């Protein structure tokens, strides 16, 4: 039995990868559309950063504390929920629409499988310039559609990514809770290791 199992591989976690993308996108969004002197700017950036950092810290802590991993992963989830509310507030306060959960643009962005903020920005620009239709595919008919603002597209795109990250974290939390219930944590492994040692030395 390994007393301290393999841990800290957070960079391979899909939840970490998407949360990191949310952070990068949020930094750009806030620098462009929110006054850098405002408290909202700092709060949004810090909430996005917390989402990333707590996934990493939880993964690293898992070697000796599954309970701490659960706690920190839940903090990451809560931070992204706070960030979601900030983006929704931005849209409401600026009179911009929040895309319906069934809006095809949401599925189109997910289908792009963006891995960098540059790729997300490119998708947003194509939406703004009418290079993509409502289903995310090239559509010349969009030229006659009413223009939509870049802030609307960018904020809704960020919300799509946050939704993906939160969904991944919900599944991750459920899996961690099940593992903890079934196998326990470091304390249980330590007790078992001591018992094995005693049985061998008798």
Protein traits:
single chain; de novo design (two linked rop proteins); 70% helix; 202 residues
Question: How does this structure look, described?
Answer:
The model is unreliable at 136-145 and 188-195 (pLDDT under 50). It contains seven helices and no strands. α1 (14-33) packs antiparallel against α2, α1 (14-33) packs antiparallel against α6 (150-183) and α3 (66-93) packs antiparallel against α6 (150-183). The protein has a single domain (10-133, 151-201), classed as 23S rRNA-intervening sequence (de novo design (two linked rop proteins), Up-down Bundle). The longest helix is centred in the C-terminal third of the chain and has 34 residues, at 150-183. The chain is mostly helical and 202 residues long.
Secondary structural class? mainly alpha
SSE run? HHHHHHH
Tally the beta strands: 0
Mean pLDDT: 84
Q: Tell me, what's the shape?
A: globular
Compute the number of structural domains: 1
Write down the CATH topology: de novo design (two linked rop proteins)
Beta-strand level of the residues, as a percent range? under 5%
The CATH superfamily is identified as 23S rRNA-intervening sequence
| CATH class designation | Mainly Alpha
Low-confidence stretches: 136-145, 188-195
Helix content: over 70%
Distance between the termini: 19 Å
Rg: 21 Å
Please identify, by name, the CATH architecture: Up-down Bundle
Number of continuous helical runs = 7
């Amino acid at each position: 039995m390994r007393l301290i199992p393999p841990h800290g591989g957070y960079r391979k976690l899909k939840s970490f990868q998407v949360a990191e993308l949310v952070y990068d996108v949020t930094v750009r969004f806030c620098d462009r559309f929110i006054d850098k002197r405002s408290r909202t700017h700092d709060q949004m950036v810090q909430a996005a950063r917390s989402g990333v950092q707590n996934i990493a810290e939880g993964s690293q802590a898992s070697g000796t504390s599954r309970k701490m991993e659960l706690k920190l992963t839940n903090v990451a989830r809560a931070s992204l929920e706070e960030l979601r509310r900030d983006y929704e507030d931005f849209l409401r306060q600026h009179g911009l629409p929040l895309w319906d959960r069934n809006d095809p643009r949401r599925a189109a962005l997910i289908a792009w499988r963006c891995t960098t903020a540059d790729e997300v920005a490119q998708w947003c620009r194509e939406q703004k310039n009418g290079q993509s239709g409502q289903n995310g595919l090239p559509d010349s008919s969009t030229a006659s559609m009413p223009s939509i603002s870049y802030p609307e597209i960018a904020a809704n795109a960020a919300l799509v990514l946050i939704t993906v990250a939160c969904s991944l974290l919900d599944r991750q939390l459920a899996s961690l809770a099940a593992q903890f219930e079934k196998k326990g944590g470091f304390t249980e492994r330590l007790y078992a290791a001591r018992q094995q040692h005693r049985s061998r030395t008798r």
